[in-house]
Amino acid sequence: MEELKKAEIRKFLMEFKKIMVTGRGLDIVNRLENMDALVQLGLTKKNLKEEVMTLSVENYCEGPVPNRDRHGDVWIFGKQIAGKEIYIKLKIAHVGKFKIAKCLSFHAANFPLCYPYRTEERKDEK
Question: CA–CA distance from 16 to each of 12, 54, 83 (Å)?
Answer without folding.
Answer: 6, 12, 25
